[in-house]
């Protein structure tokens, strides 16, 4: 499965100021069987973590996390860019190699003691993952793992959250 999956990921030059090769999952999303297989693999991981909720950072995290939550019958919480959610929100800022931003989730989205897994398309420098961790913990939840389609180990994102379990379908070295 990983080899099939890897073959369907497009490699394109990312924004010049990032200095990395972007791994585009769009071809995977266009292949229903491959998308379903990838979703199932991530769901197996999330189930092993006994998660109550999946958090998906905007926007690819919605695409990745929502089907996993649906397959498992658990909650899904979107982490959005600023000023996109109604009602009262919790906000966490993060830095990336090309600037900073922040994510928000509803203050009532995560209940104290809930076990949470973050699902997204790509683990690079871990900026959004660290922001999600902060949001989850500020609301009393416990981040028990993270699941990605793609990991770029050379960018050392995993090292920025020591002790956090990271699952990825494909690892690309030489990002």
TrEMBL record:
<dbReference type="InterPro" id="IPR050054">
    <property type="entry name" value="UPRTase/APRTase"/>
</dbReference>
<protein>
    <recommendedName>
        <fullName>Adenine phosphoribosyltransferase</fullName>
        <ecNumber>2.4.2.7</ecNumber>
    </recommendedName>
</protein>
<keyword id="KW-0328">Glycosyltransferase</keyword>
<dbReference type="GO" id="GO:0002055">
    <property type="term" value="F:adenine binding"/>
</dbReference>
<dbReference type="InterPro" id="IPR029057">
    <property type="entry name" value="PRTase-like"/>
</dbReference>
<dbReference type="Pfam" id="PF00156">
    <property type="entry name" value="Pribosyltran"/>
</dbReference>
<comment type="function">
    <text>Catalyzes a salvage reaction resulting in the formation of AMP, that is energically less costly than de novo synthesis.</text>
</comment>
<keyword id="KW-0808">Transferase</keyword>
<dbReference type="InterPro" id="IPR005764">
    <property type="entry name" value="Ade_phspho_trans"/>
</dbReference>
<dbReference type="InterPro" id="IPR000836">
    <property type="entry name" value="PRTase_dom"/>
</dbReference>
<dbReference type="GO" id="GO:0006168">
    <property type="term" value="P:adenine salvage"/>
</dbReference>
<dbReference type="GO" id="GO:0016208">
    <property type="term" value="F:AMP binding"/>
</dbReference>
<dbReference type="GO" id="GO:0005737">
    <property type="term" value="C:cytoplasm"/>
</dbReference>
<dbReference type="GO" id="GO:0003999">
    <property type="term" value="F:adenine phosphoribosyltransferase activity"/>
</dbReference>
<comment type="similarity">
    <text>Belongs to the purine/pyrimidine phosphoribosyltransferase family.</text>
</comment>
<comment type="pathway">
    <text>Purine metabolism; AMP biosynthesis via salvage pathway; AMP from adenine: step 1/1.</text>
</comment>
<dbReference type="GO" id="GO:0006166">
    <property type="term" value="P:purine ribonucleoside salvage"/>
</dbReference>
<feature type="domain" description="Phosphoribosyltransferase">
    <location>
        <begin position="30"/>
        <end position="155"/>
    </location>
</feature>
<keyword id="KW-0660">Purine salvage</keyword>
<keyword id="KW-0963">Cytoplasm</keyword>
<dbReference type="GO" id="GO:0044209">
    <property type="term" value="P:AMP salvage"/>
</dbReference>
<comment type="subunit">
    <text>Homodimer.</text>
</comment>
């Amino acid at each position: 499965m990983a080899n099939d999956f890897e073959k369907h990921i497009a490699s394109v030059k990312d924004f010049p100021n990032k200095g990395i090769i972007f791994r585009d999952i769009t071809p995977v999303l266009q292949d229903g069987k491959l998308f379903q297989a990838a979703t199932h693999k991530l769901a197996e991981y999330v189930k092993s973590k006994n998660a109550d909720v999946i958090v998906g950072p905007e926007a690819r995290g919605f695409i990745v996390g929502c089907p996993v939550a649906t397959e498992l019958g658990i909650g899904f919480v979107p982490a959005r860019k600023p000023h996109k959610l109604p009602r009262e929100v919790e906000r966490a800022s993060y830095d990336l190699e090309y600037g900073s931003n922040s994510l928000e989730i509803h203050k009532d989205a995560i209940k104290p003691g809930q076990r949470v897994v973050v699902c997204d398309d790509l683990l690079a420098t871990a900026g959004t993952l660290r922001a999600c961790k902060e949001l989850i913990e500020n609301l009393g939840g416990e981040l028990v793992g993270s699941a990605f389609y793609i990991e770029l180990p050379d960018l050392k994102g995993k090292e920025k959250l020591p002790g956090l379990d990271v699952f990825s379908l494909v690892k690309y070295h030489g990002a």
